[in-house]
Specification:
The structure is a single chain. The chain contains ten helices and twelve strands. By secondary structure, it is of the alpha/beta class. A hairpin with a 5-residue loop joins strand 10 and strand 11. The protein is globular, with a radius of gyration of 20 Å. It has a five-stranded parallel β-sheet with strand order 3-8-2-9-12. 41% of the residues are buried.
């Protein structure tokens, strides 16, 4: 699917708030469909696995599905698989082709503990979700969070490796979702003006700058390894999904533009993948700007620009 640049700009000029609301309503329909399929599978498994590459909106989507399930009378718990990262050990942590620790590898996760917890939850037993301290790159000593599923309760585990064969092979009955920004924006001639991949890069760059105090240079330095990790560890397993969700929103380039453009303008031409940044900087002026005030607090875009009801 592709969005029309002409239609986006026309809507942004005539009724930006209505345009944003209509796009969010379309995404809500996708969430509703996913929630209904999850509910139908409850008789088979109380585990939901949600995967997707960086910047896909996994966290917000898992919480939206959680909220929709609860509206349907099904109590749900959203769990970030980031909590299952293992303490970084220079001696045993996986390495990438440059000899650096490969933080994108599924073997950075405690897969044995995850699979054990899935089985325990399905049996109605109590698990203790660990907490990972990213600042210190180690399992936190804070007391683990207990979770026990009652009758007709569901746990939604979201993470980049949720659909890896190591997990799905041992949990074949779990409902499996894959989410990514999959739609491009095209001009009237059918030329791609803005790629879905660029939406994810912009989301991540803005989020990193606003909430992690990371300069755009840091995000871009990581992006090559992130993309390599996607091709190695995430995309090959997307066909394990029962449900595919496109998290791109037609209005998002217009909303994120005021944050993303200044960030990308800080980058130097000698940086790796700068050609991609050059294309982004050429594309943004083609989009009308939509004020952030038009965006609802429950929008997926809020995960990246802030001000959302799902912010942790």
């Amino acid at each position: 699917m592709a969005y029309s640049l002409q239609k986006i700009n026309a809507a942004a000029r005539s009724d930006p708030k209505g345009f944003v609301e209509a796009c969010d309503a379309d995404f809500a329909k996708k969430v509703d469909l996913a929630a209904r399929k999850i509910a139908e599978n409850l008789k088979n498994s109380r585990i939901v696995l949600l995967s997707g590459p960086s910047g896909s909106g996994k966290t917000t989507t898992s919480k939206k599905i959680q909220a929709r399930l609860e509206e349907m009378g099904i109590r749900a718990h959203a769990v970030s698989m980031d909590n299952y990262f293992q303490t970084v050990d220079p001696e045993t942590s996986p390495r990438n082709r440059d000899g650096l620790i490969d933080y994108e590898s599924p073997f950075c996760l405690d897969m044995d503990l995850l699979n054990r917890h899935f089985k325990m939850l399905d049996r109605g037993e109590t698990i203790y979700i660990p907490k990972f301290d990213f600042a210190r790159q180690m399992r936190s000593g804070i007391r683990s969070h207990p979770l026990k599923l009652g009758k007709d309760e569901i746990a939604i585990f979201e993470g980049i490796h949720a659909l890896n064969d190591i997990i799905t092979g041992k949990n074949p009955q779990a409902e499996k979702l894959y989410i990514s920004a999959r739609s491009n924006v095209e001009d009237e001639a059918g030329n791609v003006v803005f790629k879905g991949t660029w939406m994810r890069l912009a989301r991540r760059t803005v989020r990193d700058a606003k909430f992690r105090a990371w300069e755009p240079q840091v995000t871009m330095k990581m992006w090559s390894n992130v993309r390599r990790g996607e091709k190695l560890y995430i995309s090959p397993f997307k066909d394990n999904a029962d449900i595919m969700l496109d998290s791109s929103l037609p209005y998002e380039v217009s909303v994120i533009k005021p944050y993303a453009m200044p960030a990308f303008q800080q980058l130097k031409p000698e940086m790796e993948r700068y050609e991609e940044i050059g294309h982004l900087l050429e594309a943004y002026p083609k989009f009308e700007t939509i004020e952030e005030s038009c965006v609802s607090p429950d929008s997926l875009v809020r995960e990246f620009i802030g001000g959302g009801i799902y912010d942790e």
